[in-house]
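Allow me, if you will, to draw on your knowledge of protein folds for a short while. A protein sequence and the structure tokens that stand for its backbone fold form the material at issue. I would ask you to consider whether the tokens describe a fold that such a sequence might reasonably adopt. Thank you for your consideration; the sequence and its tokens are set out here:
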Amino acid sequence: MSEPGALRTRLDRLFREVAKFGVVGGLGVLVNLAVFNSVRHFSDLPVVRASIVATVVAIVFNYVGFRYFTYRDRDKSGRTRELTLFLLFSLVGLVIENGVLYTATYGLGWDGPLASNFFKFFGIGIATLFRFWSYRTWVFRALPAKEAVQTAESFLEQAPPRQATRRQPDRV
């Protein structure tokens, strides 16, 4: 494939991946904010604890969406590894997301409902950048490209066949 054609194909794949990630992530944000506001409204949990509960619910929702929609074509052989890395990077995202909310609420004293939702949303945005990079790089790894497999197969076909050497029987 020509260089411009290969670049166009890679950019097209990246665009589709970002779009699918955005759909799942957007729904995850709605789940996150809905749970956050419900917990705040129906319980006495402090703001950041309510946010952590909402983030955990959204992480579960997002894993299902990413595994079965966004990255369904990716390697599925190491599910334990995949889930462990997903949870690890999601935990880092949780800290980023709720660190922003914590700083605004307890560091700056901005703890009204509007401010809490704004900084929750802002924290989600920052954490999303980290999550996108880490999920696509470490968690949902791409299978080998068809071109690479075909190149390797053609290389093997061109190699001359190895001749087996016969071992001469030992003479006594």
User: Anything to note?
Assistant: Residues 3-42 form the longest helix (40 residues). The mean pLDDT is 85. The chain has one domain: 3-142. The two ends are 62 Å apart (CA to CA).
